[in-house]
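> forwarded from #structure-qc
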């Protein structure tokens, strides 16, 4: 064996796959800042994730996109035959500490709001070095080190600790196909948040904002503060007010109706739906939209194709790369058999035609409907 190894006729050690190269920096200058800072935060955009999630429409759109994709299971497909293969353990549960749906949901959230998502490799297979378990990593914990030109990632640090570029402790990166919401919609989301605050202040004020005018002698500061505090407390408990002959109340603001808070909130809600590529009626932002039963059946296809597909594609393609999955196979979301599954009448009509054309057997038809074939179990 020693001579054969020296002549390189046999391998002395098994092949161990290394992780793919760190992704190139794809973001370009856009307005005042970059579209993505690879997890460093979005101060230049004027809004952070916690503040953005306080806007109801942003929260609703996040739930629709992340929750729907997370509910779709993964499957392993042979590229040549299209056969569904047995799932590796990480496809069913990437992180041993939590369900698959939770990991996928927050991965999509990172892609949606930060344009990039990170998984840390926590376990590897001994035979080929491919990852066996992962853990989702929050974006603000990751610090990438770029080259002198800012075009390539040289290394990653998590919580200020440099991580290896392969093996246990390394990071798997997912790149979004489109710019992040926080970078492109910072001003819109900030405007919606400011409007929510303004409406809350108006709701807390029993009467129109204004000032108390004193026509008599000037009052000391302590007495002025006492009058204002008493006025506020009295307005919270009764609608009738009393002032002396030297004091008068002057309104200095418009009413919430005059400010058109409702119309402005509706307009901004629709704008946020456009920003996050979610149909307005799904976020209850389009009050005049009517839906029929037939429209609802088709709506899922449109929602999947135009809203979910970019994030689904980003995750599928990354998990199908050779450093994670054998190049002869691919990882896919089983959307056709779950989220996009046709109704029973349509499915049975299709199966009937396939049986008539002898494209499938009776056992295969039963398996398609998750029924036990005559020859045994599914």
């Amino acid at each position: 064996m020693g001579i054969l190894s020296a002549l390189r006729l046999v391998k002395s050690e098994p092949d161990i796959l290394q992780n793919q190269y760190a992704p190139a920096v794809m973001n370009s200058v856009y307005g005042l800042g970059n579209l993505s800072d690879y997890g460093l935060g979005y101060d230049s955009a004027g809004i952070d994730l916690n503040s953005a999630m306080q806007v109801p429409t942003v929260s609703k759109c996040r739930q629709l996109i992340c929750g729907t994709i997370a509910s779709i299971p993964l499957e392993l497909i042979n590229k040549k035959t299209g056969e569904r293969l047995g799932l590796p353990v990480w496809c069913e549960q990437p992180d041993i500490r939590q369900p698959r749906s939770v990991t996928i949901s927050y991965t999509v959230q990172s892609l949606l709001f930060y344009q990039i998502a990170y998984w840390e490799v926590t376990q590897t297979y001994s035979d080929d070095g491919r990852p066996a378990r992962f853990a989702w990593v929050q974006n603000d914990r990751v610090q990438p080190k770029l080259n002198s030109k800012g075009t390539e990632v040289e290394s990653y640090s998590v919580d200020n600790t440099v991580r290896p570029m392969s093996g246990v402790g390394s990071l798997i990166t997912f790149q979004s196909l489109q710019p992040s919401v926080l970078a492109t919609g910072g001003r819109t989301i900030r405007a919606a948040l400011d409007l929510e605050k303004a409406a809350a202040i108006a709701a807390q004020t029993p009467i129109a904002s204004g000032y108390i005018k004193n026509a008599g002698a000037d009052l000391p500061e302590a007495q002025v503060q006492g009058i204002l505090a008493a006025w506020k407390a009295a307005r919270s408990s009764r609608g009738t007010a009393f002032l002396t002959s030297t004091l008068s109340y002057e309104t200095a603001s418009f009413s919430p109706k005059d400010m058109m808070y409702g119309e402005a909130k509706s307009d901004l809600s629709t704008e946020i739906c456009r920003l996050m590529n979610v149909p307005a009626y799904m976020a209850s932002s389009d009050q005049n939209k009517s839906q029929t039963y037939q429209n609802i059946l088709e709506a899922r296809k449109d929602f999947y194709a135009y809203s979910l597909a970019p994030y689904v594609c980003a995750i599928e393609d990354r998990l199908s790369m050779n450093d994670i999955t054998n190049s002869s196979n691919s990882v896919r979301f089983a959307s056709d058999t779950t989220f996009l599954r046709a109704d029973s009448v349509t499915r049975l009509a299709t199966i009937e035609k396939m049986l008539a054309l002898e494209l499938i057997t009776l056992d295969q038809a039963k398996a398609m409907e998750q029924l036990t074939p005559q020859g045994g179990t599914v």
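QC bot note: The longest strand covers residues 116-124. Residues 342-378 form one domain.
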